[in-house]
Amino acid sequence: MFSKAQWVAIVLIGTSMGLVGGALVSYQMLKVPLQRLSMTTPMFVLDRAKLIQALPPNATADQMANAVADWKKLSAKLSAAGYLVIDATAVIAAPDDVYVRPEGK
Q1: pLDDT value for 25
Q2: Contact by Cβ (8 Å): 83, 43
Q3: Residue 100: pLDDT above 80?
Q4: How far is 44 from 31, CA to CA, in rounded Å?
Q5: Quick check: 47 and 85 in contact, CB under 8 A?
């Protein structure tokens, strides 16, 4: 029979091998998606038409100017972070999750 120290050693070795094996399998499974991700340009689509539609019908010129200024700040922030920012009028097709929505929508 094995002693208590031998059982502890067996458990530790088995756990270590399992962790290393799991890490290698995870790395191999993520290798292709990570390579693909590094080759794509991160982007967001700003939809000015929806921005205008989201404003109340009786919005003042100041409210409209503030909304446009907020979106310009947001696009500048995204651009500075390395994202390509395009307007929705130039988009033929895009996944829904790349569109930037007004806050709270």
Answers
A1: 87
A2: yes
A3: no
A4: 25
A5: no
Instruction: Read off the amino acid at residue 78.
Output: L
Which residue, chain included where needed, has tokens 């290698």? 24
8 A C-beta contact, residue 53 and residue 76: no
Q: What are phi and psi of 44, to 5 degrees?
A: -135, 150
Q: Above 70 in pLDDT, residue 34?
A: no
What's the pLDDT band for 39 if we cut at 50, 70, 90? low
Global confidence as pTM = 0.50
Residue type, 84: L
The number of beta carbons lying within 10 Å of the beta carbon of residue 45 is 19
CA angle 19, 25, 31 (to 5 degrees): 130
Evaluate whether 100 touches 47 at the Cβ level (below 8 Å). yes
Alpha-carbon distances of 27 from 14, 34, 56, 69, 105, rounded to whole Å: 20, 10, 50, 43, 37
